[in-house]
Each structure stands twice: as C-alpha cells, then as structure tokens.
C-alpha cells in the first residue's frame, strides 16, 4: 500500500512540475496573492493623523493630548488655532481626527465637575471612523478616571480597596488582535477553493490536446 501511494505521489509531482503554467498559477495564488491581500485588506487602525484645537492650553489638556498620541493609534499632525483651520484640514483629508478642548477644561476638572471634549471624525471610511471612535472613547474614559482619583485624593494603592468590578480579559489565539493573522487564514482557504478550478481545467485541457493528437496521428496512420 505504501509503495503504491509513494508511486502515485511521484507521478503527480512529475505531472505537476511538467506544466509550467500550473506551477506559476499555484505559486501566485499561495504566495504573492496571500501576502498582498493579507496586508492590503488589513483593517488595523494605526497612526491616524490628528489635529488638536486646545483652547485651554493647560497642563491637564497637554496630558490628555499626550495620552492620545502615545498609544500609537494617533499621530499629532497639527496644533491649530481656530475651528476654521481644523475644518480645512478635515475637508482636504490631511487629518482624520480632530480634537477640540474647551477653554474651561482644567478649571472644571479641578472643581470636580464634568467637562466635555469634542471629537470630529472623518466618516468617509466608516470602518476607520468607528474603530477610531472606540479608541478615543477608551483613552478619554481612562483619563477621566485618573482625574477623578486625583481630585478625590485616591492613590493607585488605595484605589484597590474601592468597590468595583475589575475585568480580567484574556484573548486566546490572537492576543494582539492583529487582523493579518485572521486574514491570512481566510486567504489560504480562498486560494484553495479558487485554485482547484483552473488547475483542473488546465489538466483537462492538456488531456484533451493529448487525446486529439493521438486521434489525429492514428487517423493519418490509417489513411496511409
């Protein structure tokens, strides 16, 4: 049984490498196409251009800007001086995200009152805008919690004694949530599905040509 299987494998490999078009087709589908599509179709959001209009210009507002840009998701493109300038950058596509900090931002934080910041997103790419919105929401929420603890005089050590729920998240199989790891598996499956049809067609076409040639040779021999 093993000898028959080995002989069949040898025959198939010889047949495979004999057809140069099939070799190039399979190499293209399983290498170049997978690599190109995996990174070209990635939905990871990183290094988004950010413009900030900081009316407050305080240490608190600068800390918020640093926390937003230090994540790696956003890159500070410009510190603008007016909403007109910010709108111009968004309209021309030079920035994807705009952040407006009000003039009473630090004062309201010091008084323990709620404050607001305005986030403007370029929605021409809905997927990018949605992901960027989620990133900014988490960053601003974390900053707000830090400011609340500071206003209440709660340190990192004493905050552990406050009642609350601390979710311990564990992500299996793709802990960094990198989209190419997911995409490459999909492209391999897609290449396997699409690769069978042209390969079968090429082999059938070769067999048909071979049969026609044998038939033509036999007919000519019979005529003679």
Molecular structure report:
The chain has a domain at 48-156: abc type-2 transporter like domain (abc type-2 transporter like fold), CATH 3.40.1710.10. Helix 2 packs antiparallel against helix 7. It has a 4-stranded mixed β-sheet, with helices on both faces. Mean pLDDT is 76; it is low at 207-219. It contains 7 helices and 4 strands, in the order H-H-E-H-E-H-E-H-E-H-H. The protein is elongated, with a radius of gyration of 31 Å. Helix 3 links the parallel strand 1 and strand 2 (74-80). It starts with a helix and ends with a helix. The relative contact order is 0.12. The protein is α/β, with parallel strands linked by helices and 224 residues long.
């Amino acid at each position: 049984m093993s000898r028959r299987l080995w002989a069949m494998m040898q025959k198939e490999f010889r047949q495979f490498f004999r057809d140069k078009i099939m070799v190039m087709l399979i190499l293209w589908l399983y290498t170049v196409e997978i690599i190109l599509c995996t990174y070209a179709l990635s939905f990871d959001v990183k290094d988004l251009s950010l413009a900030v209009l900081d009316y407050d210009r305080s240490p608190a507002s600068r800390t918020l800007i640093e926390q937003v840009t230090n994540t790696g998701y956003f890159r500070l493109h410009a510190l603008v001086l007016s909403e007109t300038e910010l709108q111009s950058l968004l309209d021309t596509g030079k920035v994807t995200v705009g952040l407006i900090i009000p003039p009473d931002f630090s004062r309201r934080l010091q008084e323990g009152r709620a404050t607001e910041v305005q986030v403007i997103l370029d929605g021409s790419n809905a997927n990018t805008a949605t992901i960027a919105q989620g990133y900014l929401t988490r960053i601003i929420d974390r900053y707000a919690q830090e400011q609340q603890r500071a206003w209440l005089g709660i340190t990192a050590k004493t905050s552990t004694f406050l009642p609350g729920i601390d979710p311990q998240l564990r992500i299996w199989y793709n802990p960094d949530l990198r989209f190419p790891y997911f995409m490459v598996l999909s492209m391999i499956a897609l290449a396997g599905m699409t690769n069978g049809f042209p390969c079968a067609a090429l082999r059938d076409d070769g067999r048909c040509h071979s049969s026609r040639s044998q038939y033509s040779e036999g007919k000519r021999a019979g005529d003679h």
